[in-house]
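New to this. Comment on this protein:
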Amino acid sequence: MLDAGSGIRPLGIALQNEFQTQPISLSLLITHAHWDHIQGFPFFKPAYDSKNQISIFGCDGAGASFRQIMAEPMKVPFFPITMRELSARMDIRKLSEMKFFIGKVEIHAAFVNHPGVCVGYRIFTSGARLLSCPITSPTNFFSTPPGQNN
């Protein structure tokens, strides 16, 4: 899955309907911490079921760790349930490598030109390649974040 805006709510309902009593194991790639990319996660039904496993990948932001970024929308007074109270097994992973695998799927992440820290993802499967870069400035698609030399 890519990002966790408002569309993650109906996706969660559809996944619960499809999988019924079977466990759901999924990975969520977050591009950046702007609210429209993370604020739907507290309404994602599979996160409330203990049989499910959710791995969430993303980058630290300006002044906040990735774990803090994901927990922020679920803090008092914004939401009645905290991230650590979710029933699903959660694995929140800061991107430490820009090339990695999720099972057999190869993922390449790259910093993109957008306010704050933002990454785009290239996803390689045996049958297809996908580029996910929802927001960029037209100048310099894959850029290096300030203060880093690559």
Remarks:
- The chain has one domain: 8-132.
- The domain at 8-132 is CATH 3.60.15.10 (Metallo-beta-lactamase; Chain A).
- The first helix runs from residue 8 to 19.
- Strands lie at 25-29, 53-58, 89-94, 99-102, 105-111, 119-124, 129-132.
